[in-house]
Amino acid sequence: MVFRSSAATCGALVALVVSVTVARGETSGVQSSAVVEAACEGAIVGAASTYNPFKPGKEEGGPKTASGERYDPEVWTAAIKTSLRRKFGGVQFGARPKFALVEAVGKKVIVKINDVGPLRPGRIIDLNERTMRHFDPRMKLGVIPDVTVRPLSGDGWTPGPVG
C-alpha cells in the first residue's frame, strides 16, 4: 500500500509519533523506527563530514552556533549547508533549532540542526564529533558519501540513535 501525505497530514502524523516515541526514547535511549516513518518528504542525499570549531582557550564553553547555542561535541548536533537553511526552517540566532533524521552506513540518528556553514561542494551536512562517531567509530573516514538527511517537523524530538 502506498501512503502519500500532504504537509498538514505529515505534521499531524509526526506529532502523534513524537508523543509516543519521545516517551520511549527517554527511557530506553534508543528511539523506535517509527520515527523513520514520520519523516516528512524532502530527503536530501550527499556527503557528510565532521567539524569541531572548538579551540581550547578561544571561547569558554565553545563557540556559538547559528542558533546561539554553544557548540558541544558530546551532544547529537549538526550544521547544515547554508544553501539548505530555508529547507530546515531558517536555523538562525535565537530561533529554536530544527531536527533531522540522518541515515548512512546502515545506521540512523536524529540530530539537532543548530548551525549552518559553507560546506565544501558535494557535502550537505557537517556532523559534530559524537554524531560522526556513531557512523564512523574510529573517525577514519573523514567524509561519508551517500548520506540521506530528512527534515523532521516539530520540535519535540529527542536527538540520538534510532533503533
UniProtKB/TrEMBL annotation:
InterPro entries reported in the protein's UniProt record: RlpA-like_DPBB, RlpA-like_sf
Signal peptide (from-to): 1-23
UniProt keywords, alphabetically: Signal
RlpA-like protein double-psi beta-barrel domain span: 46-145
Keyword Glycosyltransferase: no
Tree of life domain: Bacteria
Stated name of the protein: RlpA-like protein double-psi beta-barrel domain-containing protein
Organism of provenance: Bradyrhizobium manausense
Taxonomy of the source species: Bacteria, Pseudomonadati, Pseudomonadota, Alphaproteobacteria, Hyphomicrobiales
